[in-house]
Amino acid sequence: MFNPLLTTSSMSFCKDCIQGVRHEGEPSGTLETIAGVACYVAIPNVDYAKDKVILLLPDAFGIELINAQLLADDFAKNGFKVVAIDYFNGDGLPADRVLNDKSFDFRGWLATHGAEVTRPPLDKVIAALKEEGVTKFGATGYCFGGRYIFDLAFDNIIQCAVVSHPSLLILPEDLETYFSKSTAPLLINSCEHDKLFPAEAQAKADEILGNGKFAPGYRREYFPGCTHGFAVRGDLNDPLVKAGKEGSFLASVKFFLEYL
């Protein structure tokens, strides 16, 4: 029998939420303030559709972790303007202190970053981008960001949705709500070892949304040998994790090219 996952702070995270590897590279985007909210903006170096934007909703480390910035840059290299949003109001997890620190009180941090704190920055940025002429939003969310991909899709604010190892979901209710409320095609990048979106949840997603049942479009990718966090903080020295990180990114780009 499928057991729902709870969104309470005591049940909505795992050790892999605050572990992983800092990636190497030189970010090419810029830090900007949009509607009073800090954002990392990456723009293609070729002509691109000015009425489309991909919102990148990072994990708990926020936009300051170089991994998120490099992901935004890579999406921009594929022809999309990308806006990564600091919905933690400058209070994302400090990577220098937290990454790989199993003793960090993530539960306490999570308790002070509920929807009343983290959702308003998203709405402000989206409203500002609409005023600038953006009419179509794709969105990609990692871990914590996966929750808001679902919420934005429920409200039909976004037109294309991608989640990688999402957390904070209530399952299977959120999958059922997605089916009944959203019109945004959905890609789920899942993996072998994920307490927050385990095999049972993956199978339930396929049951509810797969086989053509969800008319707008549904796809789920699966990456063996990977753990929660692989798409943004995976150890690229591990061949399976490297394949998962690169594979999930490629799947996301193809999905946006097809549906956005």
Descriptive keywords:
260 residues; 9 helices; 8 strands; globular
Distance between the termini: 36 Å
Order of helices and strands: EEEHEHHHEHEHEHEHH
Structural class: alpha/beta
Please tally the β strands and state the result.
8
- The helix content, as a percent range, equals 25-40%
Spatial shape: globular
Characterize the main sheet: 8 strands, mixed
Count, helices: 9
Query: Biggest sheet: strands side by side, in what order?
Result: 1-2-4-3-5-6-7-8
Q: Provide mean pLDDT, rounded.
A: 88
Portion of residues in beta strands equals 15-25%
Please tell me how large the radius of gyration is. 17 Å
Contiguous low-pLDDT stretches (5 residues minimum) are: 1-11
Question: Would you write up a description of this structure?
Answer:
The protein contains nine helices and eight strands. With 260 residues, the chain is an alpha/beta fold. It has an eight-stranded mixed sheet with strand order 1-2-4-3-5-6-7-8, sandwiched between helices. The longest helix has 21 residues, at 239-259. It is globular and about 40 Å long. Residues 1-11 have low confidence and may be disordered.
What can be said about this structure in brief?
By secondary structure, the chain is of the alpha/beta class.
Give the arrangement of secondary structure elements.
Blueprint: E1 30-34, E2 37-42, E3 52-57, H1 66-77, E4 82-85, H2 95-98, H3 106-111, H4 115-131, E5 136-142, H5 144-154, E6 160-164, H6 173-181, E7 186-193, H7 199-209, E8 218-227, H8 230-233, H9 239-259
Parallel strand pairs: 3-4, 3-5, 5-6, 6-7, 7-8
Antiparallel strand pairs: 1-2, 2-4
